[in-house]
Design a protein that fits this description.
- This protein is 31% helix and 23% strand.
- By secondary structure, the chain is of the alpha+beta class.
- A hairpin with a 2-residue loop joins β3 and β4.
């Protein structure tokens, strides 16, 4: 099994704007994407992820596997490295064999896929 968690706070520094902001999105039957970072970039990146996944579904007539979602997201972030998105995404899900898979990216698409867990966002130093 696999778990992905986040807070629901939308804010800037010590100011809270909202407490119902969704940062974890289900993009496939077994795939979730967590998007900590600048909210406008989160919304843009999520729209691009959904678009590419829909194109894959139409072309291949199947769901995109979690490792393919991770590769696609890494490539998408790297394509925008000169005008990067201010996000540190996490992709988590179950692969085709039912084994958990998680990977975290920096803002230019460099991924880190350990065997146990990943942490991103402003509180990552506190959580390790």
């Amino acid at each position: 099994s696999i778990a992905i968690a986040s807070d629901n706070r939308l804010g800037t520094q010590f100011n809270t704007i909202a407490r119902n902001n969704i940062k974890v999105h289900q993009v496939g039957k077994k795939v979730f994407v967590g998007l900590p970072g600048l909210e406008t970039d989160n919304q843009t990146l999520l729209a691009k992820i959904k678009f590419r996944m829909n194109m894959f579904r139409l072309r291949e007539e199947r769901e995109m596997p979690v490792k393919a979602v991770a590769a696609m997201l890494g490539n998408l972030l790297y394509e925008h490295r000169w005008g990067m998105f201010f996000v540190e995404p996490v992709v988590a899900g179950l692969d085709d064999d039912g084994k958990p898979y998680c990977v975290a990216f920096d803002s230019i698409g460099a991924g880190c896929a350990p065997d146990d867990f990943v942490v991103t966002g402003t509180a990552q130093d506190s959580l390790l």
